[in-house]
Design a protein that fits this description.
With 403 residues, this protein is α+β, with helices and mostly antiparallel strands. 38% of the residues lie in helices and 13% in strands.
Length: 403
């Protein structure tokens, strides 16, 4: 998705074009890509411009239609950006859907369910990042308005203060992503915390270890919570993580967390609650309680992706987030964002859908739910629509209503 966003923002970015021109698959092979690069070099224009003019070049005659469709897609996404009619998170969600990335995941589900889950999670995490980025930007603008004359920004994050239009916000977002990438590649000889998965840490030891996100739904992950054997496997991973520390182990949990675009309060991980008290020095809270209870809510353990409160779109208020059960649900990747033609149609809460339910789709008419596969706070529905056959759809995304 980042490569799509870079090409939308910078149409001359040939490197990004090469990464996405065939994602999802468009039948554009290596020979065509090589011809694109050669023609762009000869004519001293971008490869995207060559795609738009593909019918002019005999070397591209076999794929000219596909190349022009791709160029038209990028131009449409770019015009939506320049029109500045959506919020930043809405635009990211819209791009994820309009590029065909979401539908490609659904189409590939039967071949590799685990891979489909991971890819959907990646898309939703990018949306979470966009929501958080936009909240921080609005907060900085609010603070700037009350702090007198603006000072010249000197870091990537400071540029957020100046970003008010959708194109500028996207540029700032991409600039920050590039800065973080450079920081990851330039650790030098200074002291730093090395980021790694628990699997990759096997066999290694460190003086100090930070285990972050020790919460139900994250560790153990929500996909493991339905199987005792999967829970035991993650318990073994917890043992691996804890025993990587030679001297000090820091375990952190969040009071509230933005997960897949939604603010949630999760319980402290069972693996941490199982550690004897004499080995723990607790700061800032109790692992015996749960985060929802701290806010006066009923704990929601069985379904860690039940939303406690929406990710706020306005400027962030001072102090911690105080979720309320009555707050309306936010727009997440599972719900289609606004398009140039009108507002988005809401989908169905995945928790309310079961095999055998009757639903109505705006295009396919009435159908029967055959299967429900929970995934990343959403669900992939297999629906039988009679004459048009079976279709796979994301519950929150599709234009569906229960009958």
């Amino acid at each position: 998705v980042l490569a799509y966003l870079r090409l939308i923002a910078f149409p001359k970015d040939d490197l990004s074009l090469g990464r996405i021109i065939n994602v999802p698959r468009r039948g554009i092979g290596d020979a065509t890509l090589e011809a694109l690069a050669q023609l762009a070099a000869v004519h001293q224009v971008s490869q995207l411009e060559i795609c738009a003019r593909a019918q002019e070049f005999p070397a591209l005659s076999r794929t000219s239609g596909r190349l022009q469709l791709f160029a038209t897609l990028i131009e449409r996404l770019r015009q939506a950006l320049l029109s500045d009619q959506m919020s930043f998170p809405e635009y990211i969600e819209w791009v994820e859907n309009e590029t065909g990335l979401v539908q490609d995941i659904l189409d590939q589900q039967e071949k590799s369910k685990a891979d489909s889950v991971d890819r959907i999670e990646n898309l939703k995490e990018l949306l979470s990042d966009a929501v958080e980025f936009d909240q921080n930007r609005k907060t900085q603008i609010e603070q700037l308005a009350g702090s007198g004359p603006a000072q010249q920004p000197d870091t990537a994050d400071d540029h957020l203060i100046l970003a008010t239009t959708l194109p500028d916000i996207l540029n700032a977002f991409l600039e920050r992503a590039a800065l973080y990438s450079e920081m990851d590649n330039d650790a030098g000889e200074q002291d730093f915390v090395r980021l790694m998965t628990i699997h990759s840490a096997k066999g290694l030891e460190f003086k100090a270890v930070f285990l972050v996100g020790a919460e139900e739904g994250l560790f153990p992950g929500y996909r493991s919570m339905a199987s005792e054997s999967d829970i035991e496997e993650e318990r073994r991973l917890a043992y691996v993580a804890i025993t990587r520390a030679r001297e000090k182990l820091y375990v952190t949990t969040a009071r509230s967390r933005l997960v897949f675009g939604q603010t949630q309060s999760l319980m402290v991980s069972r693996f941490i609650r199982e550690i004897p008290d004499e080995y723990m020095d607790e700061r800032g809270g109790s692992r015996r309680g749960d985060r929802s209870a701290e806010f006066g809510e009923t704990p929601k353990i069985d379904n860690p992706f039940v939303t406690a409160a929406p990710a706020r779109r306005g400027p962030a208020a001072n102090g911690p987030v105080r979720p309320t059960a009555s707050s309306p649900a936010p727009t997440a990747m599972g719900q289609t964002g606004p398009t140039a033609s009108g507002p988005a149609k809401k989908g169905i809460d995945p928790a309310s859908v079961h095999p055998g339910d009757r639903v109505r789709h705006t295009s396919f008419g009435e159908g029967k739910v055959i299967r429900v596969d929970p995934v990343a706070g959403d669900a992939i529905l297999l629906i039988e629509f009679g004459k048009v056959g079976q279709k796979r759809m994301l519950s929150r995304q599709a234009s569906l209503e229960k009958l």
